[in-house]
Amino acid sequence: AQRVTQPEKLLSVFKGAPVELKCNYSYSGSPELFWYVQYSRQRLQLLLRHISRESIKGFTADLNKGETSFHLKKPFAQEEDSAMYYCAPAAVNSGGSNYKLTFGKGTLLTVNP
Amino acid sequence: GAVVSQHPSWVICKSGTSVKIECRSLDFQATTMFWYRQFPKQSLMLMATSNEGSKATYEQGVEKDKFLINHASLTLSTLTVTSAHPEDSSFYICSAHGGALLAKNIQYFGAGTRLSVL
User: Fold this and answer.
1) How far apart are alpha carbons B78 and B72 in whole angstroms?
2) What's the CA dihedral at A55, A56, A59, A62 to 10 degrees?
3) Which residues in chain B are contacts of A101 at CB distance < 8 A?
4) CB A1 within 8 A of CB A28
5) Cis amide linkage into residue B40, ω under 30° from 0
6) Which of A109, B9, B16, B69 has the highest CB neighbour number within 10 Å of its CB?
7) What local confidence, expressed as pLDDT, does residue B101 receive?
8) How many C-beta neighbours within 10 Å does residue B2 have?
9) Is residue A97 within 8 angstroms of chain B, CB to CB?
10) Does A94 touch chain B (CB under 8 A)?
């Protein structure tokens, strides 16, 4: 079964500190990995995807196929980074016609001043 | 670009009535739309995937007769909760992807609809 694990429900850091949000997945085949973010009172939005290898708002995520992990990192957290973060692998469905996301339970990041 | 509008944002209804939720892609054509359900303090659970002009594909455990999905055009999908009961109270979220100019496989989310069944 496809599974994604975000072990930390809550993560609290101080401004300027490094932050790492963990994500491990168990998937058949080669999923595409995404991080989605939900700021307070806003809708879910894409933060980054592993295939594009870009850094968004200072966040990066490295896909480690050996450890089946896709941890999200930022060297210096900012208060505006406080949000709910979801790791979401995507895979083609059995019919081969659609990609679908499986969301982890999310990690609520709080960056304290 | 890539805006998804969901309506209504909040609906309260009596037990036994049906409720329709709309999901529209405002500035792109959504070949595929997804419907999720989110319980308080829990993650999003995919309910179904719908492609324009064809029947929706429901996830295991989701009653298709209970949650009717229609994707009649490239910009509109609707979810109808039929004969709603209090246990159907939840936050329902739609997302869409598609459009020639949009990156593949990225989903754009609506703001969600909070359904409260009395």
Assistant:
1) 9
2) -40
3) 34, 46, 107
4) no
5) no
6) B69
7) 57
8) 21
9) yes
10) no
Q: Compare CB distances from B49 to A45, A46, A100 and report the shortest one's residue.
A: A100
Q: What tokens appear for B48 in the block?
A: 């179904």
B7, B15, B30: which is closest to B93 by C-alpha?
A: B7
Distance of alpha carbon B13 from alpha carbon B118, whole angstroms: 6
Q: Is B52 exposed, middle or buried (0-12, 13-18, 19+ CB in 10 A)?
A: middle
Half-sphere exposure (Cβ direction) of A54: Cα atoms closer than 13 Å = 7
What are the φ/ψ torsions at residue A5 (nearest 5 degrees)? -120, 125
Residues B85-103: pLDDT tens digits?
999 999 999 999 876 556 6
Chain A hits for B112, Cβ within 8 Å: 43
> Which pLDDT tens digit goes with each residue over B74-83?
899 999 999 9
Question: How many angstroms separate the Cα of B43 from the Cα of each of A32, A37, B3?
Answer: 19, 12, 22
Least confident among A12-26, B5-19, B37-51, B97-111? B97-111
Nearest to B112 among A32, A43, A104 (CB): A43
Looking at residue A98, its pLDDT comes to 62
